[in-house]
Write a structure and sequence with these properties.
By secondary structure, the chain is of the alpha/beta class. The chain has one domain: Metal-dependent hydrolases (TIM Barrel), CATH 3.20.20. The protein is built from 10 helices and 11 strands. The strands form 3 sheets. A 6-stranded parallel beta sheet has the order 6-7-8-9-10-11. A 3-stranded parallel beta sheet has the order 1-4-5. A two-stranded antiparallel ribbon has the order 2-3. A hairpin with a 5-residue loop joins strand 2 and strand 3. Helix 7 runs parallel beside helix 8. Bound molecules: zinc ion (ZN). The site of zinc ion has 3 residues, from strand 1.
């Protein structure tokens, strides 16, 4: 991705943790890529102290984490339609090498609440690992299906990544689902409606919405600016950009994330 080194937006000095990003190359229709080193450099530019990263091949995210410990934190991206998924996730979570489970029902073609997901959810609950679920694309990753999964596993901590993504009805549904389920959190990358960030903060809960970039699919500058203009005040923005995800991941107990 292009980084010209100039800061073209407002409160860029605010501390940030990126709750959702990807390292690696996404081909086909996506045509986007970023290396761990490029990401670390860009994060420095935009004042992002940590990023939660994932990639379909877990070795890519784990390598990134190894190269930038404390800065890039890997999720285990599991495809529950594969028979080996549960064992693989048990192995990764048992080693303590991942910070959570990533599910992408659209990419891997299953509905979010399909029973094939259940063994992964059981392991996530057992290890108290959060579950990040891509949302916003029919028929696989709709907010209502993710809500059903969260209802099925009330002890699981479910993050609805993109909070409905690009469709207004799904965005509203993401807010409505999270309001009724206290084990659902929202992440706002790629979600176009800045107003819905403030609405989620007020209606779902001040601690229940995270900022994320979805780099390399989106640009840091755009994703930061949308949250900045959402209508939240400075203290509220600090919650969304930093404290909510820091507390959710247990990182604030470590004195916050390391300096960028
Ligand atoms: Zn993503």
């Amino acid at each position: 991705m292009a980084g010209n080194g100039r800061r073209l937006f407002g409160k860029s000095e605010m501390r940030k943790i990126d709750a959702h990003a990807h390292v690696g190359e996404f081909g086909s229709w996506c045509g986007v890529a970023i290396t761990a080193a490029e990401m670390a450099r860009e994060m420095g530019l935009y004042g992002i102290e940590r990023a939660i990263v994932s990639y379909p091949d877990n070795r890519v995210a784990l390598d990134a984490q190894e190269c930038f410990p404390g800065k890039l934190c890997a999720l285990a991206w599991m495809n529950p339609t594969l028979p080996s998924a549960a064992d693989e996730f048990r192995y990764l979570s048992g080693k303590g090498s991942v910070s959570g489970l990533k599910l992408h029902p659209l990419f891997n073609a299953y509905t979010a609440n399909d029973e094939c997901v259940f063994p992964l959810m059981e392991e996530a609950v057992l290890r108290d690992l959060p579950v990040f679920v891509h949302s916003g694309h029919p028929p696989f990753s709709l907010p209502w299906s993710i809500g059903q999964l969260a209802r099925e596993f009330p002890k699981a901590r479910v993050v609805m990544v993109h909070m409905g993504h690009g469709h207004g009805v799904y965005i509203q549904a993401a807010i409505d689902v999270a309001r009724t389920l206290d084990n659902v959190w929202l992440e706002n990358s790629g979600m176009p409606m800045h107003t819905k960030i403030a609405e989620a903060y007020r209606r779902v809960g001040s601690g229940r919405i995270f900022w994320g970039s979805d780099v390399p699919f989106h640009h840091y500058a755009v994703e930061i600016l949308r949250t900045e203009v959402s209508g939240l005040d400075r203290v509220q923005l600090e919650d969304v950009f930093y404290w909510n995800i820091a507390k959710f991941m247990g990182w604030e107990r470590q004195g916050g994330a390391p300096a960028a």
